[in-house]
Amino acid sequence: MIEQSPFPIVNKRSIQFRERAFQVGNVTGVNAYRIHRASLKQRLIEGGYRIHETPHFLYCRLAELSRQPEMQGKPVMQEILVHWFAPEVIDSDLGHFIMEELKPPGIVENTRAYGDIFGAIVGSLFPHDNQCAWHLYAANTLQRYHQRLDDHISSPRDDHPGEVFAALYHRVCQLCTGTSLLDAGCSSGFLPLIAAERVPQLTHVLGIDIYDAPFATARAMAGERHLPHVRFQQVDLLAESAASLPPFDTVTALHVLEHFTEADMYRVLSTLLKLTSRRLILAVPYESGQPEPAYGHLQLFTREKLEAVGRWCIEQWNGGMRSYENCAGGLLWVDRNA
Q1: Which of 1, 174, 272, 312 is spaced 20 to 30 Å from 180 by Cα?
Q2: 3-state SS class at 278
């Protein structure tokens, strides 16, 4: 390990970066911001790495034989993803660059590969303080969302997550009714934080998700922004216990339904309908071809399919009203009868 320089030592068996490398799964993300690209690339090549180069990344693989007896003679791939993003620009749009540059060559084949790469890049900002890295990512993303909400992008680009969700958040804030909001499948918790700041009548906001890893950062952001009425809770929408939550005036599920099979989707919808006292808001992406495996999508939606979901919801309630509009895909909201 070089003690005085962040530049890599490269040989045929290993590569080490001081203060710049973070590993998630099989991927080691390396923050090469302000490091000379051509020189680094040359040293990696000399070290035996096969390199796929894109505008923002060097994806490097090294095949070596494992020294473990049970794996003797079997190839082991070491994967290194070098990037040159400045810390202040790493936000939710990172997903756009990953999909645009790393999916076509087959580097991102499924949701695990996508998650490992995303996490390795963010973690490389502060390799010895992962919570600090995710805090910076969240702060950057929230700032960018608020800028876009103020500017109101009317025609978001489908392949830019930041624009897609900014458009959805803008419309959801307009559609919120009552004083309580439940965001089902809240992921990193950005909608609960944004709605709490932009919808003054909300006094109780809860974000739920099956994965609770982002909640430490989301709770920290809520504290910093003086939003004591925002909470986060781990909930499996397919578990019977999900229906034991209290009812909320507005319930949202934004780009969530496509992550379930059709059979499981109706189980989830049954739970959400029980938790909705006034308005349920659903949003789905429209994809062509096949559901996107990198995002963990399991089914495709069309306007007709989404509107059929709306009719089914009204049948379960024995009445109500539904409305539809195009908004970064399809947006549907269903209201209970007064």
Answers
A1: 312
A2: strand
pTM metric for this prediction: 0.89
Same domain, 115 and 234: no
Q: Are strands 9-10 and 15-16 parallel, antiparallel or unpaired?
A: antiparallel
Task: Count other C-beta atoms under 10 Å from residue 322's C-beta.
Answer: 18
Give the Å distances, CA to CA, from 88 to 28, 144, 253: 21, 11, 29
**Widest Cα–Cα separation across the chain:** 71
Domain identity same for 112 and 172: no
Rounded Cα–Cα distance for residues 66 and 68 (Å): 5
Token code pair at residue 15: 């590569």
| Residues listed for the chain | 338
Examine the domain organization and report whether 195 and 249 are in the same domain: yes
Q: In terms of domains, do 253 and 331 share one?
A: yes
The verdict on residue 305 lying in a domain is yes
Give the count of beta carbons closer than 10 Å to the beta carbon of residue 335.
19
Type of residue at 13: R
Residue-number span of the structural domain to which 53 is assigned:
9-128
Distance separating alpha carbons of residues 42 and 95, to the nearest angstrom = 27
Residues 168 and 118 in one domain: no
* DSSP-assigned states of every residue in 60-74: EEEEEE--SGGGTT-
Asked if residue 153 and residue 91 are part of one domain, the reply reads no
Q: What pLDDT, in 10s, does the model give residues 71-96? A: 455 544 478 999 999 999 999 999 99
Asked if 109 and 294 count as a contact pair (C-beta separation under 8 A), the reply is yes
- Number of independent structural domains in the chain: 2
CA distance 272 to 312: 13
Q: Is the domain of 87 the same as that of 166?
A: no
- Cross-strand pairs, 200: none
Rounded CA separation 336/251 (Å)? 12
